[in-house]
Task: inverse folding
């Protein structure tokens, strides 16, 4: 009697993934990315030092290497912490793991105050990277130029996934958001959302908004929502400027997932006048587009890549100061556009498959 054989399913890849989950109020980018791998014969575990030893992973996927070390513990403890992290990564690679880095930025937004230690850690980490994921072609060029040590490493382009369907279309129960919603109703409203950091140029935006509003005599509104990160001096600078600027509504809190849709629903356009620096991409920009809001962003090669995907009627580019961003926003709102942007290329299910293909290429190398 003839016998038949069946092909067995290949062994699943064991992946240790940084930021594999997200709680309410955090960016769910990685959560959605890894959820999309559920049917890809991949087993994803949260990254930890313990798991580096215990699980013998095939792939280690890091997004933000600066978050692997407790830099605020003092220089001596940070040095010991960085050394331990690098040693465990080295050991995991010796045991067969491949290190994949998604290069979101050219460095930490707020560089640790630890002298040259951070630069040495970055160099040592880069030396171990086996494969790079970049969110756009222009970003990959910037990363390779900034970090020559990884310029010849294999790389893949995997766009930042969208957030469509993640945030419920529900009214807000947050008192600050409710007050802002009532104040801006029926008036042209700009929004900047996300962690408030100095590089995002929030105080400059408030200054130019106040001057533009006074010159035009209109009733434009500006909503600023997100936790203030940085020094106490910076926090007070933001609070004071918001309190003294007519038309500005500051909600200096982490915004829960249940309130994100309502926050964006009160705005006509999202303005992101970030200073040029280490940031290559903006989750806030992708979020705004996911919720059907046009965006104004600085004219950079990576934002041109985003505009090429989504269209100039949804992604407007500016050069110069926040005043220029506000003028661009006014022109954008006056132009016709579709009811929603086409984000097909940013589908998290697609980006998950693309990321797994990167894993398999790294594993087989």
Result:
């Amino acid at each position: 009697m003839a016998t038949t054989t069946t092909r067995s399913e290949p062994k699943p890849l064991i992946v240790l993934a940084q930021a594999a989950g997200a709680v309410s109020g955090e960016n769910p980018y990685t959560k959605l990315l890894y959820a999309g791998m559920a049917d890809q014969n991949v087993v994803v575990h949260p990254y930890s030092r313990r798991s580096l030893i215990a699980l013998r992973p095939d792939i280690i996927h890091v997004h933000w290497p600066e978050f692997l070390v407790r830099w605020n513990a003092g220089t001596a403890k940070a040095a010991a912490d960085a050394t331990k992290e690098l040693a465990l990564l080295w050991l995991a690679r010796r045991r067969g793991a491949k290190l994949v880095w998604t290069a979101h930025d050219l460095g930490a937004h707020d560089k640790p105050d630890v002298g040259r230690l951070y630069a040495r850690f970055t160099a040592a980490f880069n030396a171990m990277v086996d494969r790079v994921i970049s969110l756009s072609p222009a970003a990959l060029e910037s990363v390779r130029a900034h970090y020559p040590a990884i310029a010849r490493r294999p790389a893949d382009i995997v766009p930042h996934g969208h957030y469509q369907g993640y945030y419920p279309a529900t009214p807000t129960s947050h008192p600050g958001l409710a007050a802002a919603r009532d104040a801006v109703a029926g008036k042209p409203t700009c929004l900047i959302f996300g962690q408030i950091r100095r590089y995002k140029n929030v105080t400059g935006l408030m200054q130019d908004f106040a001057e533009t509003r006074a010159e035009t005599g209109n009733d434009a509104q500006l909503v600023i929502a997100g936790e203030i990160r940085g020094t106490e001096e910076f926090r007070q600078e933001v609070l004071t400027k918001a309190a003294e600027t007519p038309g500005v509504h500051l909600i200096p809190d982490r915004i829960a997932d249940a309130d994100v849709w309502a926050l964006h629903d009160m705005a006509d356009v999202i303005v992101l006048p970030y200073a040029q620096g280490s940031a290559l991409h903006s989750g806030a920009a992708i979020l705004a587009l996911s919720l059907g809001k046009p965006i104004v962003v600085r004219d950079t090669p990576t934002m041109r890549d985003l505009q090429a995907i989504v269209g100039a009627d949804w992604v407007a580019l500016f050069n110069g100061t926040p005043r220029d961003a506000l003028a661009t926003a006014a022109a954008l709102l006056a132009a016709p556009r579709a009811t929603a942007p086409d984000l097909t290329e940013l589908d998290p299910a697609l980006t998950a498959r693309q990321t797994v293909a990167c894993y398999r290429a790294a594993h087989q190398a």
